[in-house]
Amino acid sequence: MFVVLLGMEPAPVAALRDALFDAYQTLMPRQRASAPAVIVAIDENTLETRGQWPWPRTVVAELISAIARAKPAAIGVDLLFVEPDRSAPGADAALADAVRAAPVVLGVAGLSHRDRRYPFPPQSVPVRMNAARELPLVSFDGHLQSRPEINRAAAGRGLISVDATDRVVRRVPLVARIGRVIVPALSAETLRVAIGAPPLRIEDRGGENVTVVLGDAAIPVQADGTMQVYFGPHDEDRFVAAEEVFSGRAAPDLFRDKLVLIGVTGLGLLDYQATPLGERIPGVEIHAQMLEQMFDGRFLRRPTRASWMEAALLACLGLLLVFVVPRARVWLSAAMVAGAVIALAAGGMLAFKAGILLNVAGPVLGALVVFGGVLAATYAEADRQRRLLREAQARVAGELEAARRIQMGLLPAPRTLFAGESRFGLEALLEPARTVGGDFYDCFMIDRHRLFFAVADVSGKGLPASLFMALAKSLLKSIALRADSPDPGTLFMRANAEISRDNPEALFVTAFAGILDLRTGALAFCNAGHEPPLVCLPGAKLEVLEHAGGPPLCVMEGYEYPTGHRTLVPGEWLCIVTDGVTEAMNPRRELYGAGRLRDVLERHRGDSPQALVAAVGEDVRAFAVGADQSDDVTLLCVRWNGGAAGPAPAGEDEIEDDLSIGLAVPTGR
Length: 669
What we know:
The protein is rod-shaped and about 155 Å long. The chain is an alpha/beta fold. It folds into three domains: 1-30 and 303-410, no CATH class; 31-296, no CATH class; 411-642, Phosphatase 2c, domain 1. Strands 1, 2, 3, 6, 7, 15 and 16 form a seven-stranded mixed beta sheet that branches. It has a five-stranded antiparallel beta sheet with strand order 19-28-27-24-25. A five-stranded antiparallel beta sheet has the order 20-21-22-23-26, with helices on one face. It is built from 18 helices and 28 strands. Strand 22 (509-517) and strand 23 (522-528) form a beta hairpin.
């Protein structure tokens, strides 16, 4: 929409355009390179001396004759003598004689209506037009001019009307129509009379490429015949007071071969016009500045279809911003817009110096509007995406929390499961590094006298590891409960085959499992690539429970895992951990290590499994305080107290029902 408005140039856009061109003139006013015109000013001092305006025509005739004696090239009179002079008989005739005796150009004022005193178009120099179209020249229905006897005596007649939209003179009709007659401006006609040029020619090359030819001078104008005036600052050196001419104080050489313009500058006569430079200058000085432009060749012109060229520039820039802003960082987009604004401003100023008027304010403002709009839309979309992401994160967090509850619910609670059991003590701890993890432990009674326990670590972390953990735990427990005479090596062989069957991501599991005969303390165990447990006899030092074992589950197909054996004595315990304990890191990225684990266990060697597990967990947390947990922390401690029978563990009557246990895993929605 803004592109179309810029191309059509409605009043607000035109006002913006004119304000920009005025700013260019203020920043880079035209400097006088020549002084072809001299203004004889009927100023305040002259009016005080010679009397108020209008003067008797004989006084004006005296002024013209005094100037003519200095042999100027031409005299342009920015005055009208419409009514007869009744101050003295023969006054009009005296003025007509003075006009006839010199190369004088009289003024013609265009009117929007016909004056009954001048029903016919004014007499004007013939104009030759080379055009395939009828130019849309500025037109006036009527006019005012000097009395016929004075007008007939003149060497030429020129238009003194200006185009002062919004009361600032920017363009002046160099040629205009009054009725069907083409009349040149006072400045152009004065120059034509001065050089004795043949009739004016208008060369039309289409669009805004129109030229008014005066002898060797080619003056570019717009299609409507207006000339864009390139103003210089008001300069008193252009003026000579009429009183100095009357009194003979003005040097004759001041007017020789010059273009002399006569006009009123007295403030009371209100012939002052505002310029783009913010000055108010006499109307006659505008014609003098136009003559200076013609002599210096300093012209301004607006190219054909310039507004649509500017609209196309805005469209290209807008499309670039629409493409770049949503994809680039804010600072990069802002830098690009700032660069484009600077480039457009510099381009507009360079074009102005070359005499081309380009309205870069439209594309600049349009680009800023597009940038603001796209940036706001991008922020709105980003905010919407953030809200959706927060909602999704909340859903995922809720689902992960549900998955955590499900996963932790898969793990047995030893204190509840073995409540009142006196033959052994068992405690376990699992703290996932994330909401869910891949470590697990298990403990249950195979029958009344045999305890199964295991600790395992699935490769990876998070949700994938937790899913595989649920599969591995369920299959391992199912195999242990189905076996006729289970031993850990055989269990691992079967688990290796079963778990590998449903393992598309090629995950693996390190595990340690043991079966403890509660009557004798006989321990059968197997290590599948796991951290070796630490064991402690009453009154002895800690030692590592070595075992040949084998690789992690799901690594080597058909591997035959050996079973190790050890007979525990009453009070002997063993502690199994995952690498999340020994490889826990503090903020300085130092490892917890096996040595620190042994120290904690040594200090609490005589405590219950519950106290041992709690002590290790607290020490690991104290060591890693301030650092993110890098891996799941899992440990299990079991101690054999002796062969005295205790109460059956909770749920033993339902152990056989565990054979039908299914795969329980957290699921996403």
